[in-house]
């Protein structure tokens, strides 16, 4: 059985790690290189670095920060934000990323997914999906948002998830905009729906507040990995505590 993964997320703006609530009200959480080094020592399975202001500002991802992080940590690193071409992807991979994440550019130019998969392999291509619930009926629906949650697209999340996998995405980073930063639990319905819809790994993101929340995302949500920020950045739980809890609950995890 494949082990589940615990992945801290570094949302970076103006060179600093920030964390907000539903993508707004951002507050400082520290230096990205220092935090990356800390999580590496803590035993995180992977790390996600997202330059959250790169796409809205129309600029490139901060390659210098990625290089500094890759010099300090030796675990899989996913980098996203402002990647609009395979040239951008190659630059991040050369800077030290193991995988690249695309969101807005993938929606605007879906062929970027297949081009990236052809050049670098599907295992390198992560499609990030920012999802907002638009119905709360017995058959809930979610809409894809782009530009760091600023722009609705009218695209159904489940349809988009299936499409990007067909195009060559090797993994999905699924964030519930409704749950993000509230620390009240992941959107389990959303996570389970996407996990059941695609054959590739799904990383659940948005809403971790307790260790039980993480457990439920993996069990009820059927996620392959969980991404969290606030509970780790502000010392509510450590990576070690999280893994020990999941191990006691029978979750296959790398201790």
What does this structure look like?
The protein is α/β, with parallel strands linked by helices and 255 residues long. It has helices at residues 32-42, 54-57, 63-72, 86-95, 104-108, 111-120, 157-167, 188-197, 211-219, 230-233, 239-248; strands at residues 5-13, 16-21, 24-30, 47-51, 77-80, 99-102, 125-135, 141-146, 151-156, 171-176, 202-205, 225-228. It has an 8-stranded parallel barrel with strand order 1-4-5-6-7-10-11-12, surrounded by 7 helices. Strand 7 and strand 8 (141-146) form a beta hairpin. The longest helix has 11 residues, at 32-42. The protein is globular. It starts with a strand and ends in a 7-residue tail after the last helix.
Layout: helices, strands, pairs:
Blueprint: E1 5-13, E2 16-21, E3 24-30, H1 32-42, E4 47-51, H2 54-57, H3 63-72, E5 77-80, H4 86-95, E6 99-102, H5 104-108, H6 111-120, E7 125-135, E8 141-146, E9 151-156, H7 157-167, E10 171-176, H8 188-197, E11 202-205, H9 211-219, E12 225-228, H10 230-233, H11 239-248
Parallel strand pairs: 1-4, 1-12, 4-5, 5-6, 6-7, 7-10, 10-11, 11-12
Antiparallel strand pairs: 1-2, 2-3, 7-8, 8-9
Strand content: 25-35%
Which ranges are low-confidence, i.e. pLDDT below 50, for 5 or more consecutive residues? none
The share of residues in helices is 25-40%
* Global mean pLDDT: 91
Sequence of strands across the biggest β-sheet: 1-4-5-6-7-10-11-12
Indicate the radius of gyration in whole angstroms.
16 Å
Structural class: alpha/beta
